[in-house]
What we know:
The chain is mostly helical. Among the domains are: about 25-40 and about 90-120; about 45-90. It has 5 helices and no strands. The chain has helices at about 10-25, 25-40, 45-65, 70-90, 90-120.
Amino acid sequence: MMMMVGTDRQTVLQKADEIASLIASSEEAEAFWQARAKMERHREAQTLFDALKKKTNAMLVLGERQGAGSEKYERVRLEVQQIEERLAEIPVAMQYKSAQAELNAMLQEVTLVLLARLKERLPVEPGPRSCGSGGSCSTGGCGGSCGTN
């Protein structure tokens, strides 16, 4: 691996832009946008995804405030589960979820490669990871950076 000596910040940012362009034009990104377009035309799936986001956020708040074992938390958790089951019956929703998970996985891989390469030369520690684990986040339900936008 060739070491860059005296590379300025602008050059590094330019390379980051190049990587971003490669990702944006990847097969995974194309599949995501196609699946998203199909989802946007499916009203029931859209309604369910919106409900899932709201219920998941409510469940997280209840978990923090009242604990995961509270009656309200359990009721909302069951509602989330029911919405997820209904979404699983809609092929376009599952295509979207799969495409989003593939794109998220690629982004995680790129991040991990960068961290691994930097760790060889710099004292780098990964930050907290709240997305990309395949949980409700992959449905856009976590309200975090991996949403449906």
